[in-house]
Write a structure and sequence with these properties.
Strand content: under 5%
Number of strands: 0
Order of helices and strands: HHHHHHHHH
Largest sheet: none
Low-confidence stretches: 1-16
Helix content: 55-70%
Mean pLDDT: 87
């Protein structure tokens, strides 16, 4: 059986190793660009930041580096959402599984907490995701404007299904709107807490207490009686 000459094998090994190093460098650059874009979008607005400024903020000299790795602005936004959303989703999946498989029936507060707490993991010093997301959903007309992605994926749909079973007396149309308001309000509130923490280095209460109270407040809103005269509250 013929054997590959040592020099050819060495070249192949070098090629593979070089390719791995190149891919690794590419991933590092991509991550630097994502975090730079997230911060600049959060501070200045998504539409106001030139793509070349993102590259410069990430320490890249090539003015077209963002287009090389992502394409246009919408793809940068999508990549940020996928990256950060996947981090929240990993935590949320476990919480949803606990609700479905737990020995005690879940409450409305459990459902709300399973949405809010995985978002709160982004309250970190070098993380600008909540501020970015708050701006983005405002531009898109609310959380429902995010469309079908990790943020409105299987675990969020499951939470909404569980909620429907827990509050059968609230008409579907009313509960649907309240659900979207709950998700949107949760993002805005967490972004506010994070921004206040950055600006003042202190909050009116420990962040854990504020999150607990946010869950309690949003849960109460979901279960409140419909407003008098609301035509959606008239069952057919």
């Amino acid at each position: 059986m013929s054997q590959t000459p040592p020099d050819r094998a060495a070249r192949r090994g070098t090629s593979r190793s070089g390719g791995e190093r190149k891919n690794s460098r590419g991933e590092v650059t991509r991550q630097l660009l994502l975090t730079a874009a997230e911060r600049l979008f959060a501070l200045h607005g998504i539409a106001a930041v030139p793509l070349r400024d993102i590259g410069a903020a990430a320490g890249q000299r090539n003015h077209a580096v963002v287009q090389y790795h992502f394409g246009e602005r919408d793809e940068v936004v999508k990549a940020i959402m996928e990256f950060r959303g996947a981090q929240s989703e990993a935590s949320r999946v476990d919480l949803v599984a606990g609700l479905m498989l737990g020995t005690t029936p879940p409450t409305v507060a459990d459902v709300v907490a399973a949405f809010v707490r995985p978002l709160a993991i982004h309250i970190q010093p070098d993380n600008y995701y909540l501020t970015f997301l708050s701006l983005y959903i405002t531009e898109e007309g609310g959380y429902e404007g995010l469309g079908g992605n990790v943020h409105t994926g299987a675990s969020v749909v499951t939470l909404q299904t569980v909620l429907r079973r827990l509050v059968p007396d609230i008409p579907d149309a009313v509960l649907e709107e309240r659900w979207w308001v709950t998700l949107t309000s949760a993002v805005h509130a967490l972004a506010r807490y994070h921004a206040a923490q950055r600006k003042r280095s202190s909050l009116p209460a420990p962040i854990g207490v504020l999150i607990d109270d946010l869950v309690a407040m949003l849960s109460a809103g979901l279960t409140a009686p419909p407003a008098a005269g609301d035509p959606r509250a008239v069952r057919q």
